[in-house]
Amino acid sequence: WLCLNQRKFHVLDMIAAKVRALQVERKELQNVVLCGHSLGGGYAILAGLDLLARGLDVSSVLAFGAPLVVVPEKENKLWQKLNEVTAVYVNGWDCVPRLPSCSNWLFDVVPRSLPEMLAIQVGKIRVGTNRAQKLLEQFAASKDIFSDYDVVGSLVFLRNGSRKVIVVQSNDSQRRKLLSTEPPFVGRFVVDSHDMGHYLATMRRLS
């Protein structure tokens, strides 16, 4: 949220201004669709919430491999609107959509997968695995806070090589169980599955 609200570079103000300008300049544009991958997907969700708060209609928010960035307030009208238009795609065992809430992934699956890698990358952020291990140790103190973050909208589970798609809504009691389920063994595939190229390949096979 702070990345989108920097004092000298207020991204959310810029997005809202651009949407309003396009709606004035091009009357034929009917829908506002926000999308992104990884942290960009998280930003798309937060930007969608901000636009709704400003009274702008949002047709759809599509997030690919996005982390959990919202603490649900299910009685809140804005959350309800965001929940109606949001879909988060999860490719196979991609670790990022399970973070930070699934503590077994954050503190067990991911650390055990890191020794196979020299660095991990989320969005444009690239962190050496030694540094990543130290960050995870520091995160342990915030474990209870992280658990409050949860799903908004629909979770769409995809898997490379399969045409089966599982869709779970934010009010489904199985959502956290599905996200928390661990792979039969660990390895760098939990990070590799996060690559946007893998998402595109899987989506093309389904189309």
Strand order of the largest sheet: 1-2-3-6-7
Rg over C-alpha atoms, rounded to the nearest angstrom = 18 Å
Note the total helix count. Answer: 9
Which structural class should the secondary elements be placed in?
Answer: alpha/beta
How much helicity do the residues have? 40-55%
Q: What integer is the average pLDDT?
A: 86
The ordered H/E elements are HEHEHEHEEHHEEHHH
What is the number of beta strands? 7
Q: Please state roughly what percent of the residues sit in beta strands, choosing from under 5%, 5-15%, 15-25%, 25-35%, 35-45% or over 45%.
A: 15-25%
Q: Which regions are unreliable across 5 or more consecutive residues at pLDDT < 50?
A: none
Q: Largest beta sheet, briefly?
A: 5 strands, mixed
Would you write up a description of this structure?
Strand 1, helix 2 and strand 2 form a beta-alpha-beta unit. The chain has 207 residues and is α/β, with parallel strands linked by helices. The protein is built from nine helices and seven strands; from the N terminus they run H-E-H-E-H-E-H-E-E-H-H-E-E-H-H-H. The strands form two sheets. The protein has a five-stranded mixed beta sheet.
